[in-house]
Design a protein that fits this description.
The structure holds 3 protein chains of 3 kinds. Chain A is built from 13 helices and no strands. Chain A is an all-alpha fold. Chain B contains 11 helices and no strands. Chain B is elongated, with a radius of gyration of 26 Å. The two termini of chain B are about 30 Å apart. In chain B, about 50% of the residues are buried. Chain C is about 35% helix and about 25% strand. An 8-stranded mixed β-sheet of chain C has the order 6-7-8-3-9-10-13-12, sandwiched between helices. In chain C, strands 20-21-22-17-23-24 form a 6-stranded mixed β-sheet, with helices on both faces. Chain C is globular, with a radius of gyration of 26 Å. Classes of the chains: A mainly alpha, B mainly alpha, C alpha/beta. At the A-C interface, α9 and α10 of A face α2 and α4 of C.
């Protein structure tokens, strides 16, 4: 069955990519110039302290052997001990935060994907009108802005003198149900949405225009198919396919976008945790978080690949 | 001598088209592209904005009223006659620090983009022209690097090698290179399949020479646009890094760092945050507008010359 | 006489932005059961005029004047809802490229049912399904569930086109517009599609407009022929009348540039280029290329008149032109090209077998290419003809076995590993001049690499050789500083030929070099190639899928099918008395113009 083989092959490639990602993470934090022990303790540390830490980190063993142990532990869910604060297990440090971040990203995706796909399709239909031109300029401008600039603009607008509506920082109270703290999410979700939206809008607009210009759309019209049916049956299903890959990329980008956005709003997720960890040279945490964030990309890409194969007859039937 | 001369002539024959000399003059392509781009309002706005902000960054320090580290008042004062844009978290003049704070963003992002472009174009062209297995392997490996969101990848490198400015530029370059390589590969792939490449190969022209003289000139247009886009991203990433506290270290004056230092006072003294944010925003918008204008001009021109 | 189904009067289609005319003053009628062939070269506005009948304009174009009446209905005055009913119901359309025109995401059964559903054909689903099966049978395709559940990409090109034809006839339209439906199909498939179209139009009494660039295709199919030039109909008339003696100079020149199997005449191209929309003159558009031009032709737009209602011409001097014998249009083949005999072969292949990846695409090929002669390599797509040509040129990317010899010594497989004299001796000209010239290089930069590679020349000498090569292909030396996109397709192909000539080759391989060009340009390129063989004594390997073309320039022919040679011989012998069944079928399926009265 060629379809199953194709999908299994993609999954295999995804696993290979994940393995290489882990290699990059590990060697970036272990083999690049610079001694982790000195980096952690600072230049004024005593040689004895340094030696102790090196032993604790296992720096006396060869790099490849250390990678083996590390990835082995990782696979069994043991992410090591955090070097900062109370030397908690990494899993304890990031567990709750992972959940918070996932919540934020999913909320942002739920808002931005349907909204931007809708806008993209609509502007493609209204191509070359004033509205289309306006949306194009807005998306062009928005896509140029770094996410922290968007975030600060949002804060300046909604949390300072202008309108004092919403909290400028988004601290979650762990003892209260999420549903009672929804106002906390508004600004971060808005920022992430504004950051992702322009790309998906442009992509969806472009792919819809391409489909609308295609000969089979002309053919459907020349067959006398009503315009609503042309859109529903012929245009949209074909326009969504190329947008899937791009949307997956953008959702994966959200995994990076939360680094800045969580830091800006002081939201307790893995993004702000990564910033803290980098500041503290907390390598076990850095390794775990980078690996998680990169896996999100690999996973989403794989999902988009498989979805594309499943909804494209030419790929699905595997002929020619 | 026309081919007709061998046959019985009924009517005099000329060349296939009557030659019109002026229309066939050798044209300078870049001039015409630039002109088309300049005719678009968005490119004009982009260029003007860019020049203004570049001017502020370059000449700002010469006109600044104070030293960037001089204390001119209390912390977080609103704009007044002493400090036109108020003071920052330590009581330094915001205007002065804005005027001083642009240079690093420009130099670092330009360096990062140039290095990233060079790496990316070489890799992308190499992969596309090598075709098949080499192409597949190179792109898979680059895919691994692309799995990291830009900022995460840069943070990973910074955590290992430190926050020296040139290392930040290099980290951003390395993080951009795979993405640029992908675009360069796509652009090259469209060209490698054309017959003129095969024609050169049949002549026995060496591969490196074909890459340099046949492939590269045909991907310069998309790569120029890519340069603009990447520059905007580099500016954003480098400013974000400063904002997160991993760029220039205090007491340096830098737009990103200023936002970080002053955001706790955003409710009392918004100018200390808003003005540097505005500078970064305008700069990235300017670069994007220029890139977009250029892209539109090139598409217009390519449409004219397009393959049928 | 049967009733008139379609009447077009004074149709003008223009670009919305500039008001430039794509089509103007288009007048014609079609009766039921009649096929009108609308013939024109590229950019003549034929497709625009045809799709205007369905009130469908490409982006930016608009019908600005005229009248289109189909079965008493004024089509241009219809509301959107009425128009929807007319499209696919009263008037249907068969597209140029079915692989692009069928929705890739829908099964063909769904797409066939759709047209019946939207036009409420038949009372029930069962009736519609029955109609689908009936249509599939009429276009000779299986109508079973499994076949109907296929997606377009699971069908061959010919099958896709037949599905499109079935769709067009499904709702029993009064008028059917066929837009170059067989372009891109092999001759065998084309013959089947043409036969289906002819049978169905006659059976159902449908009026058909068949748009094509290929006069040979409509020569057997159409009852009447309309010739389009620069957005105007220049001549409309019964097929036999037109072939026996057309009254418009353009029609006559066009006919003279079409290669035919009899091969009694040398091909003659039409010099010059058709004026583009927006640059069309006040007077006759053909005036600057015409042999009969007078001051009147330049000053005033010619009237549309003719010997009868059925035959009308847009020319001031149609009476004189029509009265002239057609013999004046043709030039007999020069004797030298057909009788000259070569000495020892320059290139020989012995048992050449070639692979694409693991697939063997050539199986043991032996050919001889001789100096001063042209060997035509003929076959349909997938026959391996181009692969063989590329093996000889050293640019086939896969594995090759067997012997390829140049003047008796073995050639290396890869051109890069061949010594300089070998690379210089064999020059290759590609199919499309749009892809084979680097758009970023001036003509001088395109012509100089071979000179730099093969000869050590001074600057002045390089320049001189380039000018000389341009002269050989009838191009002016001022073109040296020009870029390819400033040239027409024919000029570009001449530049590509010049690039081969500067190397002073002993073998010239031409790979379908005329297939992307209009017939009138093709004719002048063929003239050029014939002349080059005569003058330089080069050995030519001419790869083509088009049999009539073989007659116009080759002395020897090799017919290939599926990677093997099915027939070898002199052109005259093979075309007159083909031995292989494959060649016989190919000949029978090849549409040919019948030059009556000659």
């Amino acid at each position: 069955m060629p379809l199953t083989r194709l999908i299994l092959w993609r999954i295999f490639l995804g696993i290979v990519t994940l393995f290489l990602v882990s290699v990059v993470v590990f060697f970036a934090t272990n083999a690049l110039p610079g001694d982790p022990a000195t980096a952690i303790l600072g230049p004024r540390a005593t040689p004895q302290k340094l030696a102790e830490l090196r032993l604790q980190l296992g720096l006396d063993r060869p790099v490849v052997a250390r990678y083996g142990t590390w990835i082995g532990n990782f696979a069994t869910g043991d992410f090591g001990q955090s070097l900062a604060g109370m030397n908690q297990p990494v899993s304890t440090v990031i567990g709750r935060r992972l959940y918070n971040s996932a919540l934020l990203v999913i909320l942002a995706a739920l808002v931005s994907v349907p909204l931007s796909m809708g806008i993209g399709t609509y502007t493609a239909l209204k191509r070359d009108t004033k509205l289309d031109g306006g949306v194009t300029i807005v998306t062009l401008t928005l896509s140029a802005l770094p996410e922290f600039v968007v975030g600060i603009a949002v804060i300046l607008l909604f949390s300072t003198q202008l309108f004092h509506w919403l909290p400028p920082i988004s601290r979650l109270d762990p003892y209260q149900p999420i549903t009672q703290q929804l106002s906390v999410f508004v600004l971060p979700v808005l920022t992430l949405t504004l950051a992702v939206l322009p790309y998906i809008v442009r992509m969806m607009r472009a792919s819809t225009i391409e489909v609308l210009e295609s000969e089979y759309i002309s053919m459907a019209r020349l067959k006398g198919v009503p315009e609503s049916l042309v859109m529903r049956r012929h245009a949209v299903p074909n326009a969504v396919v190329p947008a899937i890959q791009g949307t997956a990329m953008q959702l994966a980008w959200l995994a990076g976008g939360i680094v800045v956005v969580e830091y800006l709003f002081a939201y307790p997720g893995i993004g702000s945790a990564l910033v803290d960890a980098v500041a503290n040279r907390d390598y076990p945490v850095i390794q775990a978080l980078c690996l998680i964030m990169a896996s999100v990309y690999v996973f989403l890409n794989l999902a988009a690949d498989i979805l594309t194969i499943l909804i494209t007859p030419r790929l699905r039937t595997g002929l020619r | 001598m026309t081919p007709m001369d061998t046959a019985v002539q009924l009517v005099p024959e000329g060349p296939e088209i009557p030659l019109v000399a002026p229309a066939r003059r050798r044209r300078r392509e870049w001039v015409s592209t630039a002109k088309t781009a300049w005719a678009l309002r968005r490119s004009k706005i982009g260029v003007i904005l860019f020049v203004v902000i570049l001017g502020i960054a370059v000449f700002g320090p010469f006109v600044a009223p104070y030293s960037p580290t001089e204390f001119v008042g209390k912390t977080f004062e609103m704009p007044n006659s002493v400090a036109r844009l108020g003071t920052d978290n330590l009581g330094r003049d915001v205007l002065t620090r804005v005027l001083y704070g642009g240079r690093t963003v420009f130099t670092l992002s330009l360096t990062a983009t140039v290095v990233g472009m060079a790496l990316g174009i070489v890799l992308g062209m190499f992969a596309a022209y090598s075709r098949r297995v080499v192409d597949e392997v190179v792109m898979r490996l680059l895919d691994v690097l692309m799995a990291f969101p830009m900022i995460v990848f840069v943070l990973l490198i910074v955590s290992a090698v430190g926050t020296k400015p040139y290392l930040i530029a290099l980290a951003v370059a390395v993080a951009s290179a795979p993405r640029i390589a992908r675009v360069a590969r796509g652009a090259t792939l469209e060209i490698v399949g054309r017959d003129f490449i095969l024609a050169s190969e049949a002549l026995g022209v060496p591969k490196w020479r074909i890459m340099l003289t046949e492939l590269f000139p045909n991907i310069t247009s998309p790569m120029f646009v890519e340069f603009g886009l990447r520059l905007a991203y580099s500016i954003g990433t480098i400013a974000a890094l400063s904002f997160l506290g991993f760029g220039l270290q205090p007491p340096a004056a830098d737009w990103g760092l200023m936002i970080n230092e002053n955001r706790i006072g955003i409710v009392i003294q918004p100018y200390a945050v808003a003005v540097p944010v505005l500078m970064i925003a305008l700069l990235t918008i300017a670069v994007s507008l220029m890139a977009d204008g250029l892209a539109r001009a090139i598409i217009g021109i390519d449409r004219k010359t397009g393959v049928e | 006489m049967s009733e008139v189904v379609l009447t077009v009067k004074g149709l003008r289609v223009e670009l919305e932005s500039t008001g430039a005319d794509i089509d103007d003053e288009v007048d014609f009628t079609i009766r039921s059961g009649e096929v009108l062939g609308l013939v024109g070269e590229s950019a003549s506005g034929k497709t625009t005029a045809a799709t205007a009948l369905l009130v469908h304009e490409r982006r930016g174009a608009v019908v600005s004047r005229g009248e289109i009446v189909v079965s008493g209905k004024d089509v241009l005055g219809l509301s959107t809802a009425e128009l929807r009913k007319v499209r696919g119901g009263l008037i249907s359309y068969v597209p140029q490229d079915p692989s692009m025109s069928l929705n890739p995401a829908l099964r063909i059964g769904t797409q066939l049912m759709e047209i019946l559903e939207v036009h409420a054909f038949g009372a029930s689903k069962e009736e519609r399904e029955e109609r689908v099966r009936q249509m599939m049978a009429e276009v000779l395709l299986p109508g079973d569930k499994t076949f109907l559940r296929r997606y377009p990409h699971q069908l061959s090109g010919g099958q896709q086109q037949r599905v499109a034809v079935a769709m067009a006839f499904a709702c029993r339209p009064a008028l059917i517009v066929l837009d170059e439906p067989t372009t891109g199909l092999d001759v065998t498939t084309q013959a089947h599609v043409l036969k289906t179209v002819r049978d169905l139009t006659h059976t159902y009494g449908v009026a058909a407009l068949y748009v094509t660039h290929d006069l040979a295709v409509v020569a057997n199919l159409a009852d009447r022929i309309a010739v389009m030039y620069a957005g105007r109909l220049v001549e409309v008339g019964p097929r036999d009348t037109l072939f026996a003696g057309a009254s418009h100079p353009y029609t006559r020149r066009l006919l003279a540039s079409v290669p035919d199997l009899s091969g009694r005449h040398a091909l003659r191209g039409i010099p010059g280029r058709a004026p583009l929309p927006g640059r069309r003159p006040v007077g006759c558009s053909f005036a600057d290329r015409c042999d009969f031009t007078t001051d009147k032709c330049v000053e005033a737009f010619p009237p549309y008149e003719g010997p009868s209602d059925e035959h009308r011409v847009r020319c001031w001097r149609w009476q004189e032109v029509g009265a002239m014998s057609t013999a004046a249009d043709f030039v007999p083949r020069s004797a030298s090209a057909t009788t000259r005999d070569g000495e020892a072969p320059v290139v020989t292949t012995r048992g050449v077998t070639a692979f694409y990846g693991p697939h063997e695409v050539l199986h043991g090929i032996d050919i001889d290419v001789r100096a001063g002669r042209c060997l035509a390599l003929v076959g349909e797509s997938g026959s391996g003809k181009t692969t063989l040509a590329r093996c000889i040129a050293g640019i086939h990317p896969g594995t090759i076995a067997g012997g390829i010899r140049l003047r008796g010594h073995d050639l290396k497989r890869d051109s890069r590993r061949r010594p300089k004299p070998d690379r210089q001796a064999i020059q290759y000209i590609f199919q499309s001049p749009y892809g084979s010239l680097n758009p970023r290089c001036s003509i001088a930069q395109i012509l100089s690499p071979p000179l730099r590679t093969f000869f050590r020349l001074s600057r002045a000498e390089t320049e001189r050789r380039m000018v000389e090569a341009l002269e050989m292909v009838s191009l002016d030396e001022s073109l040296l500083s020009v870029y390819p996109d400033q040239l027409s397709g024919g000029e570009r192909q001449r530049v590509a030929i010049a690039r081969a000539l500067v190397a002073k080759p002993s073998v010239l391989i031409c790979d379908e070099v005329t297939s992307s060009l209009d017939v009138s340009v093709q004719a002048s390129i063929v003239e050029l190639l014939v002349q080059l063989i005569d003058e330089t004594g080069v050995a030519m390997l001419f790869v083509t899928h088009h049999l009539p073309l073989v007659r116009s320039l080759a002395q020897d022919v090799v017919v290939m099918n599926e990677g093997v040679i099915v027939e070898v011989g002199s052109v005259a012998a093979v075309l007159a008395d083909p031995q292989a069944e494959y060649t016989r079928n190919l000949l029978a399926d090849t549409p040919d113009v019948d030059r009556r009265g000659l």
